[in-house]
Specification:
By secondary structure, the chain is α/β, with parallel strands linked by helices. The protein has 6 helices and 13 strands.
Length: 290
């Protein structure tokens, strides 16, 4: 009797592990959700109140369940969105992932053209991009209409809304020039910073109302968000969502692809949809995925 009960428990455990593995390796990496966030930013101008910006990062095209067809899915989602601006936070290619297939930057760039024909699209490179010839990736994306802004600052305008976008090189491989980039921005201008690595956030000046980053994949294997810190920790590999300290805001998108292990668990591929408000308008919130 005891042996029979143990066998039943062993089979139940085996089936549970098998179901989790199938979901994590096969189902979740092939999903795509769109999640809405409302961010209250200190000093955000009234003319930009309510501005919509879409964010993607760590797209890693070529990782399992994340090939060119999946690339076309998230590109179409961005085209269909009401956001006039798209920010891309790096790691567009894969370096090494089990059962992955490398997709060249030129191929990825070609599939971005329908998006850049309709939206303002800005990007920076990630560490994987630099490991696979960052200059060539930047060239290919620029030719496709993506404004690559590593260590550059430039003004952005949508109707009456005008702000500056500061792009920073990847902290690991891109030699970020924080002083030089921010020196190009007029005093008092509202600023959004875009970088790949969120641990760069503490080094940015107080003039950055919002910093957008990726890199962490939200932990990639992070059921129920158990590994995601509630407060910002520069050494955390599970940063995800909104962090606010001292009146400054960081947003970390959980990304789309996978790296090393082709598994996502509790962190489905995401197009992050940001709505930016003045700090008196709302608190930073996350709205359930559609």
């Amino acid at each position: 009797m005891l042996r029979s009960r143990r066998q039943r428990w062993a089979w139940a455990l085996f089936l549970a592990v098998l179901m989790v593995a199938v979901y994590g390796f096969v189902i979740e990496p092939g999903r795509l959700i769109q999640r809405d966030y409302m961010l209250a930013l200190r000093g955000w101008p009234a003319a930009c109140d309510g501005l919509r910006i879409d964010v993607v990062a760590d797209t890693h095209t070529g990782s399992p369940r994340n090939g060119v067809e999946h690339l076309d899915r998230w590109v179409q989602a961005l085209i269909d969105s009401d956001a006039p601006i798209v920010l891309m936070g790096g790691d567009y290619v894969i370096l090494s992932v089990l059962a992955g297939t490398y997709v060249p930057a030129d191929v990825i760039a070609e599939h971005l053209k329908p998006l850049t024909a309709r939206k303002q699209v800005y990007g920076v490179l990630g560490n994987h991009d630099w490991w696979k010839n960052g200059k060539e990736i930047s060239r290919a994306f620029s030719a496709a209409g993506v404004k690559m802004i590593d260590n550059r600052a430039l003004p952005v305008q949508v109707g009456a809304c005008r702000f500056w976008l500061a792009g920073l090189g990847d902290k690991l491989e891109g030699r970020p020039d924080v002083p030089g980039t921010f020196a190009r921005i007029p005093a008092g201008a509202p600023v959004i910073a875009l970088t790949h690595e969120p641990s760069l956030w503490p080094r940015l000046p107080s003039t950055a109302a919002l910093t957008v980053a990726g890199h962490t994949h939200g932990g990639q294997i992070n059921p129920f968000g158990v590994f995601t810190p509630r407060r910002f920790r520069a050494d955390s590999h599970a940063l995800r969502g909104v962090y606010a300290e001292g009146g400054h805001t960081l947003f970390v998108t959980p990304g789309i692809g996978t790296s090393i292990l082709p598994m996502r668990l509790g962190v489905p591929p995401e197009v992050s949809r940001l709505r930016l408000r003045g700090d008196a308008a709302s608190a930073a919130t996350r709205i359930p995925p559609r």
